[in-house]
Amino acid sequence: MPHFLSTTDADFETRFAALLTMKREDSPDVDEAVAGIIADVRTRGDAAVLDLTAKFDRMELTAEGLRFSEDEIDALCAEVSNAEREALELAAQRIRAYHVRQMPDNQMWTDPDGATLGWRWTPVSAAGLYVPGGLASYPSSVLMNAIPAKVAGVERLAITVPTPDGVANPLVLLAARIAGVDEIYRIGGAQAIAALAYGTETIAPVDKITGPGNAFVAAAKRRVFGKVGIDMIAGPSEILVIADKHNDPDWIAVDLMSQAEHDESAQSILITDDAEFGRAVAKAVEKRLETLERRTIAGKSWEDFGVVITTRDLDEAAELSDRFAPEHLELCVEDPDALSEKIRHAGAIFLGAWTPEAIGDYVGGPNHVLPTARSARFSSGLSVMDFLKRTTLAKMSPEALKAIGPAAERLANSESLEAHGLSVRARLDRLNEGA
Amino acid sequence: MPHFLSTTDADFETRFAALLTMKREDSPDVDEAVAGIIADVRTRGDAAVLDLTAKFDRMELTAEGLRFSEDEIDALCAEVSNAEREALELAAQRIRAYHVRQMPDNQMWTDPDGATLGWRWTPVSAAGLYVPGGLASYPSSVLMNAIPAKVAGVERLAITVPTPDGVANPLVLLAARIAGVDEIYRIGGAQAIAALAYGTETIAPVDKITGPGNAFVAAAKRRVFGKVGIDMIAGPSEILVIADKHNDPDWIAVDLMSQAEHDESAQSILITDDAEFGRAVAKAVEKRLETLERRTIAGKSWEDFGVVITTRDLDEAAELSDRFAPEHLELCVEDPDALSEKIRHAGAIFLGAWTPEAIGDYVGGPNHVLPTARSARFSSGLSVMDFLKRTTLAKMSPEALKAIGPAAERLANSESLEAHGLSVRARLDRLNEGA
User: CB A356 to CB B383 under 8 A?
Assistant: First the structure.
C-alpha cells in the first residue's frame, strides 16, 4: 500500500513534511576505499587500472586491450537489429535537434562610458562519460550524455563502460558510435573515474566527467571534483503526476510504474483533486503489478515510497509539487500549459495525457539526465552548457578608465589592496600628464 | 627571484609541466572537524551556532542577536564616507547592467512531428552568500555575489559574515544593502554553511550557497553539496599577462603585484615575446616591492610562484596561456582582440594596456568570482545562471506520439524497462482503436 494523504486531513502537514525528508537511499560509505583506488591509479597508472579491473570485473586485460578497437566496435554494432538501430538513430537525431537550440550566443557591446564588455563561450577540450555496466547499462544514457558534448564542440570525448566477465552491450557501443564518441574504454568503477581525471599511460586525462554510476563512482566523482568538472551526483529517480479525473487510471498507473520499475528506491507520486480517481489509479497499479516483468522492484518501490495525495484543487497540487521539486512532472489535466505556469521547481515537465514520461527518456529530445532528490530547487538537467564555459571580456578606452577608474582605486584602498589601486593610478597619471 | 623560462630552452617542456602541476596551497585537512560541526548544527540548531560563534569568534550572542537588525545596519552604513558610498554605487550599477544581459530566454517550439518542446528558466527561491570576516572581508565580493542573485530573481537572499570580537565591516553592510540583500547574520565558518544548508530555529534554510571562505568553509560547502547547490570551491588567485615590448614595464609590474598582494599562494605570470622586456618588468617588480604596503605577502608570492616566460611569438604565448587556463588574463599587445580569438581557456580576459585587471575586480561589470587553479578548462565565473535553473518542457500531440512513440517503446524493451514501453503502448493502442 502506498502512502495515502489528503490535504484536508488534520495531520496532513506533518505527514507531508515527513515524506519530503524521507530517506530513500542508504549509500554505503565507500569513501575510504575510493580514496585508496584513486591514489593507486594516480601512482601506478595503467597497472593499477588493470589490477582493479581484474579484481572487480574478472577481466584480465593488457594496457593495449583497455580500449575497444574499431574492429571490435564494428563487430558489436553489427549484432544490433535494424529496428533497434533505427530507433537509436531517431532518438539521436531528435536529441541533437533539441540541444542545438541550447547553444548560447557570444556578446560584445560598448557602454556609454566607453567600456567594451562581453563574453564568449568555448567548449571543454576533452570530456569523459561514465556508463554503468550490467543491467543499468543504458544506450539511451549514452546518447543523452554524448550528444550535448558533441553539440557543444568537445573535441575529444571518451567513454568508460565496464564489461564484467567480458560481457559488452552492443547497443551501448552503437549509441556511442552514433553520438560521435572518440574513445571507448572497457573499465568501470572508481578506477575509471580516476583514470579519466588524472590520466594513465594509455588514457589521456579529460577536463569534465559526466554520467551516472554506483556508490563507488559517485564517491570518486565527488573526490575528483575540482581537478575536473563533474555533473550532478544522481540519486534514485522519481516521478510526480498531477492528474484530474478525466484520465484513464491505467495510463497514470503505468506511468507511475515506469519510474518504480527502475529501482526499489525510486519514488512515484500521484496528486489528484479527486479522491476517487486516486483510488482508481491505485487499483490499476495493483493490477499492473500482477504481470509486470519487474514487479518485484516496482512493487517494493510503490509499497515503500509510493504516494497518492488528494488536494482541494489543482493550484494546491502545483504548490505541493513545488515542495517535492520532482525530477519528472507529468501534468495530465485539461489545460496543462496553464498549470505549468504555476510550477517553479521541476527537472522536466510533460504536458498532457499524450506525453508519458517515457517519451522523454528516449525520443522526445530534452535530456533525460535530470536533477533528483529535490535538487531541481537549484539545478538543471544536463545540457550543452555542461560542456561549455564562459570567458568574460572587458576593454577600457582611456576615456572609460578616466570615468570609472577612480572608483576602482577608492574601493581597492578601502579593501587595503594598494597594488590594485596603483595599477589603475599608474594609467590615470599618464592620462593626466597627457591632458 | 621568480621562475624565468624561455621556450627555446632545452628543458622548457619539463620545467613548464612542473609549473602547471605545482601545488600552491596546502589545505589543512579539517574535514572531520567540519563533519562534527555540521552534525552539531543539524541536531542542536541555534544553540550549536551560538556555542560555535562564542568559541571561534569570541562573541556571546542570543538567538535574537544572530541577525543584524535594520537599526544596526543603518548605524553601520552611516559610518561609510560619501566617496566610498558613491564608488560602491557606481560599481553596483555597472555590475547590474552587465549581469542583466546574461538573463537567458525561455523557448517553446513545435517540430515537424507535432511535438511541442522547449524550456523555461526559473530562479532559485532562496540563496545564501558567505562573506569572510577580518582582512578578506571584501565589500566588492558582496556586490559580485548578491547582484547576480537578485538579477536572477532570487526572492530571499541571506548573507552570513562573521564578526570576530564584534568587529563588523561597515562597507560590507552597505554593499549588502545596495545589492538588495534581505537578511544578514553575524556568523561564519562551517557553522554558517551548516545553518544556511539545513536551517535552524532562527535561520531558514536556503537552496544555494555561494561565496569564498577558508578551509573550514570550503570543506563545509563540499559536504552540503547535494542538499543545496554550491558555487565553485575557490583556490588562490592568479593572473597571467601576455605583453609585448611596447608596454610600460611598471604598468605590467604593478598588474602582476595586484594578484601577488592577495595571498602568498597567489600566482603572477608574465609571458612576453621579448626577453629584455621580461627582465625590465622583473626589475620594475623589485622596485615596486620596495614600497608596497603588502610587500611581504606580494614578495613571497612573486618569489615562490612568480613566472616570466619568453616565447618566440605571441601565438606561442596564447598556447601556453591555454595550458595554464588562468583565472585572469591580460592581453597587453597591439591587437588584443585578435589575440583573444586564439584563447580557449580563461576566466576573464582584459583587452589592451588600458584595462588593468583591478578594473574587473570592482567596476568593470563582469563578475570577479572566477575559476581558479586551471578550472577555467571546464568552468565559468559566477553569473545569473548560478541562481537560475532550467525546466525542460515536452508536449506530444496524438500524431507526434504515433510518429515517435514506437521508437521509444522499442528502446524501452531493449533496456528491459517494460513499464516504460507499456506507458507508450497504452496510448498507441487507444489511437489505433480510434483509427
Answer: no
Instruction: Chunk chain B into consecutive blocks of 10 residues (it has 435) and report each block's average pLDDT, rounded to whole numbers.
Output: 94 95 80 95 98 96 96 97 98 98 98 97 98 86 98 98 94 98 97 98 98 92 91 87 98 98 95 98 98 97 97 98 97 98 98 98 97 94 98 98 98 96 98 79
Residue A103 CA to its chain's centroid (Å): 17
From the candidates B327, B330, B357, B409, give the one annotated as an active-site residue.
B327
- How many whole angstroms separate alpha carbon B160 and alpha carbon B221? 14
Nearest residue to B228 via CA among B208, B210, B212: B208
* CA dist., res. A43 & res. A234, Å (int): 29
**Residue B111 in grid coordinates:** 517540430
Q: Which three cell numbers stand for residue A236?
A: 534514485
- CB-CB: which of B260, B357, B407 is closest to A87? B407
Please give, rounded to a whole number of angstroms, the shortest distance from the CA of A182 to a CA of chain B. Answer: 19
In chain B, the domains with their CATH numbers are 3-22+238-365 (3.40.50.1980), 31-112+123-230 (3.40.50.1980), 397-434 (no CATH)
> Is A350 in contact with B394 (Cβ distance < 8 A)?
yes
Give the whole-angstrom CA distance, residue A242 versus residue A34.
Answer: 41
Residue B224, phi then psi, degrees to nearest 5: -90, -5
B419 closest CB neighbour out of A261, A363, A377: A261
Residues making up the annotated binding site of B for Zn(2+) are 259, 262, 361, 420
Concatenated DSSP letters for A212-260? Answer: ---HHHHHHHHHHBTTBEE-------EEEEEE-TTS-HHHHHHHHHHHH
Expressed in percent and rounded to 5, the helix, strand and coil fractions of chain B are 50, 15, 35
Is the Cβ pair B351, A375 closer than 8 Å?
A: no
